[in-house]
Design a protein that fits this description.
single chain; mainly alpha; 3-stranded antiparallel sheet; two-stranded parallel sheet
Amino acid sequence: MMAIALALGAGARDFVHPGIAESAEDIARARKMIAEKREPWYGCFKALESCWSADPNQRVPEYPTVLESVRCNATIGQAGRRAHDLALMYRLTDDVRYAKKAVEFLNASSHYTELKDVGTGPLDFGKIYLLVSAAELLRYDANWEKADKVRFAKMVRDVFYPQIKNGDKARFGNQGLFAYRGALAIAIFLNDERKYDRIWRYLNGLPHRDDQEPFASGPAIADANPQSETEFQNDYRLRGHAETIPDYGYDEMLKYYIYANGQSQEASRDQAHAVCGVFMCVDIAEMFRMQGDDLYGALDNRILAGLAWVARFNFGEWRPSGYTDEEGKATFENGLFYRARHRSGRWQSLKPNPWPGPNFGGPGAPRECAYAHYSKTKGVSLEQLEWLRRARDEENEKNGGFETWGAAPNWYYEWAGWGTLMKRDESLGSAKRLAFGAMSR
């Protein structure tokens, strides 16, 4: 057992490794499909192999020791994209060139000593996710020296985790979810049961354990009247946070990010963010799944309800039939839109915002793993999966028939990507080509 533990792990939980973006089962299945040149897995592999991010001859830049949040895309975002794809290629091919180059990126990115939040720190520092995912793929590999592994582990524990462990109570839910995704990856990498369980409890709306740090108190204190209004939402000035309710729970908590009818907390903002946040829930649920915990099924498959709602809206086949201020009165079937006052105190949803047009998460969002899990592991009916399947097939059609990594020029960090190769089960077959001409776009 390598010294990555550093006596950092807290608790007796047996963590599964690799268990962040990909599992050993995922890797074994992908290797089999590559060897057999089965489609669409093989086509996705060839796209990964030819991608700039997986080039074993690329140059590794020198990164700073002090990192401002506005610089994360160009540093930990880019380095994470490259390190992850190189490490993944190594696990799929055994070609040591990929491992050595991934290690170069990990080592170059392991000297951050200070993080400066100059805006959206939890979101930005949560972009450490892909670097930690790369480290997870190489955690036991001899190409990465023990001392270098220990230095990286100490950095993510002492420098990054404190900045992202509490999400973001003052902004839209996707920003806190980015933070929690990064924090959960760190907890798994460090074998830290206490950190892991704290994230599990928060996202599920449970109180903190006595041996854990409390969650943020609340509620938010905001002006009674909005400072600005649009057709889609009201914007309120935030004055602070009360201490009257311990473990209050803000917008990244599952029950407050995806409401009971499947509506996203950000549905009134724009569809790029609304879709991103729902798929961020998928990414987090997939990590928990690999460790034996079921966030996918929480609140009666709440994440699937969110996927169905946002897909149906973006296909243009759902529009509000009316509005309500009571969550229990809004259902997917009756078409009522829930005019929620957000837990951050800063916004109230008024109606769904279709801007800038149909969105299904872009080329790298984890549609494949969500579909594979709900169809095979959960045994959800094809009727319940219709909207997720159509969203998966629609986006895959645009990108060669499979999920790729994401979108340039700035979203290097957004998704691990390559979901068709790494997450599609053999029993699910090849991508179906559907006629979308009759759908509203």
